[in-house]
Amino acid sequence: MDLHAGEEVIYEGHPSWRSTVAFYLKGLLIAIVVGVIVWLIKDVGLGVVGWAIVFAIVILVGFVRRYFTVYTITNQRLRIQRGIIARNVQQTQIERVQNVNTNQSVIQRMLQVGTVDFDTAGTGDSDFKFVGVNNPEDVVAAVDRAHAAGGEPASL
Questions:
Q1: Residue 95 burial class via C-beta count within 10 angstroms: exposed 0-12, middle 13-18, buried 19 and up
Q2: 34-61, pLDDT tens digit by residue?
Q3: What is the enclosing helix (H) or strand (E) of 69?
Q4: Are residues 78 and 1 in contact, defined by beta-carbon separation less than 8 angstroms?
Q5: Angle at the Cα of 47 (from 60 to 62), degrees rounded to 5?
């Protein structure tokens, strides 16, 4: 990320590996189903190989999705960057942030992950979210620090 003059990174992170547990469990289930189907059609050895291939793909996809999503908070802006080859970057100025909401299900609370949703002034972009971050309260505190560092009142 290219920083502007006087810009400092306050928070930078990826979705937590714990936030992808459900994805991995679904992938494991699909891999088991594929392995059983191949086992019933051919033999046990090919069933195990089929399971291993599908589950390896699931692990790789989960890792790539998580690693190549970067959430950044600076004293001037919020930024979400996604993708490897095709890149999607979403950003807004920190002074445009009006409300910061956190959302955690019971399971997410146990895993200490959650979603931080940012409401920004003058935009209809309702999908400005840091999804699956560790300790979402820390992200809210980082936004408060960004407001204070940018000279804006921390009224969140």
A1: middle
A2: 999 999 999 899 999 999 999 999 999 9
A3: strand 69-74
A4: no
A5: 15
